[in-house]
Design goal:
Layout: H1 2-27, E1 37-43, H2 62-69, E2 72-74, E3 77-78, H3 84-93, H4 124-128, E4 134-140, E5 158-162, E6 193-195, E7 198-200, H5 206-221, E8 226-231, H6 243-247, H7 255-280, E9 287-293, H8 317-320, E10 324-327, E11 336-338, E12 342-343, H9 346-355, H10 371-374, E13 385-390, E14 395-400, E15 403-408, E16 412-417, H11 433-447
Parallel strand pairs: 1-8, 1-9, 2-11, 3-12, 4-5, 4-8
Antiparallel strand pairs: 2-10, 5-6, 6-7, 9-10, 13-14, 14-15, 15-16
Helix pairs in contact: 2-7, 5-7
The structure holds calcium ion.
Amino acid sequence: MKMTKLLMVFLGMLLVSANAVANVTSQTSNKNVKQPNFIVILTDDQGYADVGFNGSKDIRTPNIDRIANEGTKFTNGYVSYAVCGPSRAGLLTGRYQGRFGFGRNPVIDPTDTKAGMPLEEQMISEVLKPVGYTSSIIGKWHMGLHPKFHPNKRGFDHFYGFLNGGHDYLPKLLIHKDFNSMPKGGRHYATKLNHNYDVIEIDEYLTDELSNEAVNFIERKQDKPFFLYLAYNAPHGPMQATQEYLDRNTHIKNKKRRTYAAMITAVDDGVGRVLDKLKELSIDENTMVFFLSDNGGSRKHPSSNAPLRGNKGDYFEGGIHVPFAVRWPNHVPAGQKYENPVSSLDILGTFAALTNAPIAKERPLDGVNLMPFLTGKDVGLPHDVLFWRNFDQGTLATRRGDSKAIHSEKVGDHLYDLANDLSETTNLIDNNKTQFEQQKAEVQAWEKELIDPVFRPLAKFGKSAKKTKHTKKQ
Ligand code: CA
């Protein structure tokens, strides 16, 4: 009896594997076969070390860790900018956002017709629409406040969240109907939420509201291919948590760190509910889930980017090297650690390849399809080189192989060997001038392909918004 049962389990496993292989093959060749669902879970300002899967001892993220442990964890996962708005613009288009002038956080002005994602760019939602996907953004938009930039006009069939770049978490604090009715000097974090074009009231902690809506959306859309962009604003400031989440972090004595951890606990619960819902609906093997943070932890908050140097806003690793993982049972290897550099720009590259979604020739992606690298079919590097520019700082940075170069009016010139010095402690520039100059020339050549920011900055910080010597208008 026991042997028979074992044999049946074994035969069942064979069948599952065969189906998985058939699915991967057919998804790219046959439109009639069910296409995978895509979920991108993005957190905001979460430090590299503030997830269990990167070794956090005090912040517990058992559900986020499921994505890394049941899927693949990227040890060199990057975003394309060190603060929120431009990083998201890169992720959503699969292109270096400097190509279309999204070179800073947009100004908070609902009448500004330039401060947002240019309409000619194609976001993930717009790329996937022609191949049959329903898309939802739940959480933080940050791609423009003017009505022309509204997510419902950008391929997202469903929007539940807020349009600006940050938000209060406690329902009682949300006192302004919208940006237009906000009194002069009012806090834009205190605006009410939106469901599509409607203003809505919420009665739960914001992170829980976003998780509720995510689970509901998955339930509603389970029969059709969907893309869910679950853009939590946690643990971005303001530091606000409920007593329930604080009570689950009493092992952390530092009060600020406890609040920050509590905000992540809320996200982690939400991630668990999303993963459980996929399983409950038997669609988890047909759903690819990415998890990442939009930039490094902020120095204003008790986050940790250890062992990386620097924080949000920096082009040392701590600003751009983020917690990053992907889970897709039976398609992406489980328990794998992938060490070659990858980028948030690769998310759309991967989705487009898996669905055969057309990409406009005049707006080629900078991201690549990660699947061949994840499955071991391609043992090379997804990217020979990665680039970054912060226009207002006058900073250019590049990683080629393990060699990282920074050329910056703000922090000077740097060269590091990340294989031996991930913490960027020893500047090698004096003995490696040639290497530095080669990388500098390479990133400067790339910069020529970019344009200046097309909108005003979030706030004017004196010198920070001026044009700099090496970022002249082209
Ligand atoms: Ca952020």
